[in-house]
Write a structure and sequence with these properties.
This protein has four domains: 203 residues, no CATH class; 213 residues, no CATH class; 128 residues, no CATH class; 143 residues. Helices cover 46% and strands 17% of the residues. The chain is built from 28 helices and 20 strands. Strand 9 and strand 10 form a beta hairpin.
């Protein structure tokens, strides 16, 4: 704080009376006036009542911090750093008191309030310049033009009405109007002026650290505008910041996400949500000397964001329309840095429309395949900024081969990774063949695309919902028609081949009816491709589900193709046993008798006496030097289905040209959890633990990563290798 600054304790009236010729300015970077009539205003009026009644001789209302700057002789601008909510409320209270005096015919007292506390005798006319967003409503209150207020829900207006009503109530109870006004001076503030040489931003950050938290977007707005001249602040706020909000949203969380993506584009790194503001400040101080140019750049990328997510898709090039339709449905901001930067390059004329559309389609194919296969997004949470960096380096200003370069970096370079790979066609069949896909987010995306692809008839997708052909609630007729037991029924219920799209009324009509009736209902919507394919089928059974599952997986692979990339992958050999084959092999070997109940097909087993439970997890082999490496994502939630058994066990199925079977009791895994690496969600909660197993000839070890790297012998837990 500068030496000339003096901290003072002042009553509200004294503070305003000594400010004749000065103007308190609520800068554009401040948050909107947010005090509520039934909460903060109610407390303010309760404190006023206590002073009036004599319960409090004086009452501390809070702190006001402002930067004082001399404009001309006897005129100062006091830019509010902290305390704008209470200061605005004080002015509303005085205008309410002035209005009551006028309504009671006491023009003299109304004039005293106005000249002493509200209007300057020289300099700016009004002693408060409110936030731009509140300015029109406040002006109407000041000028007594309430009929010109369009926003009747404005907190400025609502609080003024509430305060005035309360003051009138005090008068009806016998309180003198002058005493009520003078009581405001017994409510006092500690005012802290800071000079132009003080670091206003640091002071603001310190205040925010202890008070009501601002979002990263709020802090970034303040950082960009705070040190500018007042008139420049207003200009940049209206010209740039409001334009950014119009493209993105005024919602702070969405703005925060935009700035996080902007940083990822500029730095090729995705910062944690909690560090967006500090990282932005560091980047600006390091890379940007011209705030105006920075604002122009932010507006440009906000425009790109709007084009990607909001612009009318029907006005776009047909290939870009398809690509962005799927991208919006994927609804993930993970690949957004790449998509936004490529779109910006397109707007600059460096990337053609075909290259942009095909690049987004490649990203969609990767994301949709992973989502449909239920692969963890945490494994690719920081992948795309790194991909963008490599693409920009590889292209080096020439984007003629953009799509091939993107695919090679995004797909070809990640084949050997355990968590960020794109499933191949073979892996799609392995993972999806018996999978429960009903709740997977990508299901609706692929069904929509299957329906609309090469369909000449217009389809209103919003009128459709996912329908189970073999119903979720089985009837005796279905069991009789299928000739299967309950376990087989439910094992096939949510498979891809048993799911289709139907109109919502048809979905309700079909309910759990038998196939013959369902087929008749479906005939009413023959314009739907997926429906038309089902009509010739006379009987719906497990074989139909099996056949249709394979057909749909093939078509999904065609719609979202695996790119032609150069893959150096020692694990791509056809000698590696498939996941389906390995699980069936292990299930038959360990649990293929009547002593075990199959809770989830080839995945979870419980002994008939309920004493032992087993959860199976698989990994293919990833070469690491001369070793075989197997990576498993261990999720505690997988044990929920065996939570009632006494002994819980995890069976790791390691797939190479042979199948290695390792069985751990849960208590062993529990004992080493704090030594494993983890993946976390955006809130910091652990989603899964990383379990890495090595095989080196006949030696079997597990990698522990904390506090230091260590391999421990696990040979005693190896069951067999077949």
């Amino acid at each position: 704080m500068s030496q000339e600054a003096q901290v003072t304790r002042q009553g509200l009236l004294d503070l305003l009376k000594t400010a004749n010729g000065d103007q308190f300015v609520v800068p554009v970077y401040q948050r909107n006036y947010t005090w509520r009539a039934n909460y903060e205003i109610k407390q303010f009026l309760t404190d006023l009542d206590a002073v009036i009644s004599g319960e409090y001789p004086r009452h501390f209302l809070g702190v006001i911090v402002f930067m004082s700057k001399t404009i001309s002789l006897g005129v100062n601008e006091m830019s509010i750093i902290d305390g704008q909510q209470r200061l605005t409320t004080i002015f509303l209270t005085l205008y309410a008191a002035k209005s009551i005096y006028e309504e009671n015919g006491d023009e003299n007292s109304a004039e005293i309030i106005e000249s002493s506390y509200l209007i300057n005798s020289h300099g700016p006319k009004h002693r408060l310049k409110p936030l731009v967003a509140d300015d029109n409503v406040y002006r109407c209150i000041v000028e007594n033009k309430f009929d010109e207020i369009d926003n009747k829900e404005s907190k400025i207006l609502q609080n003024y009405i509430s305060i005035k009503k309360h003051l009138k109530g005090l008068i009806l109870k016998g309180n003198n109007s002058d005493d009520i006004v003078m009581a405001l001076d017994k409510l006092y503030l500690v005012s802290i002026p800071i000079g132009e040489n003080d670091n206003a931003q640091k002071i603001f950050e310190s205040i925010n650290a202890t008070g009501s938290k601002l979002t990263a977007a709020d802090l970034i707005r303040n950082f960009l505008l705070m040190n500018l001249q007042s008139d420049i602040q207003d200009e940049y706020y209206s010209k740039y910041w409001k334009k950014i909000e119009s493209y993105i949203s005024s919602d702070s969380k969405k703005l925060e996400m935009f700035f996080r993506m902007f940083l990822a584009i500029k730095t090729y790194a995705l910062v944690a949500k909690s560090n967006v503001y500090r990282s932005f400040v560091d980047w600006v101080k390091s890379e940007c000397s011209d705030i105006k140019l920075l604002f122009e750049n932010l507006v440009e990328y906000a425009k790109v964001y709007h084009a990607v997510y909001v612009d009318d898709i029907n006005n776009m090039n047909s290939s870009l329309k398809i690509a962005l339709t799927d991208f919006r449905k994927v609804n993930s901001d993970l690949p957004l840095p790449v998509v936004m930067e490529l779109y910006e390059l397109y707007l600059q004329g460096k990337v053609n429309i075909d290259g942009l559309a095909k690049s987004i389609e490649s990203i969609n194919a990767n994301m949709i395949r992973r989502s449909l296969c239920d692969l963890d997004t945490n494994n690719i949470s920081k992948l795309f900024p790194a991909i963008l960096k490599k693409v920009m380096e590889k292209c080096n200003g020439d984007f003629c081969n953009l799509v091939d370069i993107l695919n090679q970096i995004m797909v070809g370079s990640n084949v050997n990774t355990s968590g960020s790979y794109m499933p191949t066609d073979i892996q799609m069949h392995e993972i999806l063949h018996n999978a429960n896909v009903y709740k997977r987010p990508a299901l609706r995306i692929v069904l929509d695309r299957l329906e609309t692809n090469n369909n000449p008839a217009p389809v209103d997708l919003s009128a459709l919902s996912v329908e189970h052909l073999m119903p979720q609630t089985p009837t005796d007729e279905w069991f009789e028609e299928l000739g299967v037991d309950e376990d087989t029924y439910f094992a096939n219920l949510h498979r891809l081949g048993n799911l289709t799209l139907a109109t919502k009324p048809d979905n309700s009509r079909m309910s759990n009816s038998v196939w013959e009736y369902k087929n008749e209902v479906l005939k009413s919507t023959m314009h739907l491709k997926l429906t038309a394919e089902l009509i010739p089928i006379k009987h719906w059974n497990i074989e139909c589900i099996e056949k249709r599952t394979n057909e749909l997986i093939n078509r999904i692979c065609d719609l979202y193709p695996y790119p032609k990339v150069k893959i150096i992958d020692d694990t791509s050999s056809t000698n590696i046993i498939s996941e389906k084959e390995a699980l069936e092999l292990v299930s038959d070997l360990l649990f293929g008798n009547s002593k075990f109940e199959e809770v989830e097909k080839n995945r979870i087993y419980v002994s008939q006496d309920k004493e032992n439970g087993y959860v199976l997890s698989t990994s293919k082999m990833y070469p690491q030097g001369n070793k075989e490496k197997y990576w498993f994502g261990y999720r505690l939630s997988r044990l929920d289905k065996i939570k009632n058994v006494q002994n819980k066990n995890i069976v790791f199925v390691c797939r190479n040209d042979k199948t290695l079977i390792i069985e751990f009791p849960k208590y062993f895994i529990d004992s080493i959890l704090d030594r494993l690496n983890t993946s976390e969600d955006e809130y910091g909660s652990i989603t899964h633990y990383h379990i890495v197993i090595f095989k080196d000839n006949n030696k079997h070890t597990m990698l522990l990563s904390k506090p230091t790297l260590e391999e421990i012998d696990i040979s005693e837990y190896v069951i067999t290798e077949i």
